[in-house]
Design goal:
The protein has 70 residues and is α/β, with parallel strands linked by helices. The chain has 2 helices and 4 strands. A 4-stranded parallel β-sheet has the order 3-2-1-4, sandwiched between helices.
Length: 70
């Protein structure tokens, strides 16, 4: 299964992504900030840009939406 974690570069998103990796999931991270977590394929983009989101969700079975403006 492939999961998309929005806000993956943030504190919560990073930890959630690591838990999915530990569970054997294929993890795809999405955030405006850069991310470097072992086992996470990363796409840098903005949640307010439809094309970025459209590309990010392709091929994903689950979306964990943690991304937000603080």
């Amino acid at each position: 299964m492939r999961v998309l974690v929005t806000g993956a570069a943030g504190f919560l998103g990073r930890h959630v992504a690591r838990q999915f990796v530990a569970g054997g999931w294929n993890v795809y991270g999405f955030d405006v900030a850069a991310l470097s977590v072992a086992g996470v394929e990363f796409h840098q983009g903005d949640l307010t840009e439809w094309n970025s989101i459209d590309q990010a969700v392709k091929g994903c079975d689950v979306v964990v939406h943690i991304g937000a403006i603080g």
